[in-house]
Amino acid sequence: MKYRNLGKWGLKLSEVALGSWVTDLSGTEAEKTALQTVNAAFDLGINFFDCADAYSGGAAERFLGKALSQHARSEYVVSSKVFFPMGKGSNDWGLSRKHIVEQLDQTLKNMKLDYLDLYFCHRFDPTTPIEETLQALSDMVSAGKILYYGVSEWSPVQITEALHLVKENRFRPLSVIQPQYNMADRYIEDEIIGICEQNGVGIVPFSPLAQGLFTGKYRKGQPLPAGSRATWQADKQINNLLTEENLDKVEQLLPIANELGVPLSVLSLAWILRKKQISSVITGASRPEQLKSNALASGFQLSDDVLETIERILDYHPFSRRIG
Question: Rounded to two decimals, what is the model's pTM?
Fold first, then answer.
């Protein structure tokens, strides 16, 4: 496993990270498998684990905290997020100082930790002034409850305004962003990567395989694999990605991966890591074997010829989309 700095900052992250978006697995066979997957991450040299308070109403944080407790705190980097409703009260959501302080304390309690390495604003909150949010996060850094903070799905304008306010008010720095980035969604290449590079902000993308589209499990003209995300995911995110155009791209990318002797997932992750501004890619894995495969992307170099061929297949053109 290779490691990269978090933007210009000193924190080192494994190029491949493990995300935790689980249901309540307590006492099930699935819990044992999930625990084995976390332990496999350490064996592979993965040191970055991502979570969020809203994942399964806190169950994901509690599981991850339990799994990580078997390892020395210095061996891993752990993150969580705040924004989505965690109760029915009017202040149980968003990025107000009240919600951030209360929810961070709950997250630390869930994980049985003294501090988080990274803390993200899951979405943008139009009902709260950005300076209130940034002041609260800066104060949490000063209090030692978080080491670095950042945002997830914020627009270029929102990120730029936040960076300006940080400098103007001498807040603790905004150090990292966690946007969606994959072969099917490249919007961050238009402006956000440049903004982050100019300001030394690390980028740790989520959904790097587009909900499993770029694993090669979904094939054109073939039935959905039994038990795959497309057969049970409530919000149908992957189903919405299974367009004829995207599946055509998968069919063209598979021979490239085969020629290189790697799964399509490794090709896809290595394609993201081609960008030096990317600090780590947050992958999902339901069992150790998937994680071991994903980890092969670390250090896997794609030649200029291969990158040019991929570019022709993807045929990307800048576009505008709703963020968040």
Answer: 0.94
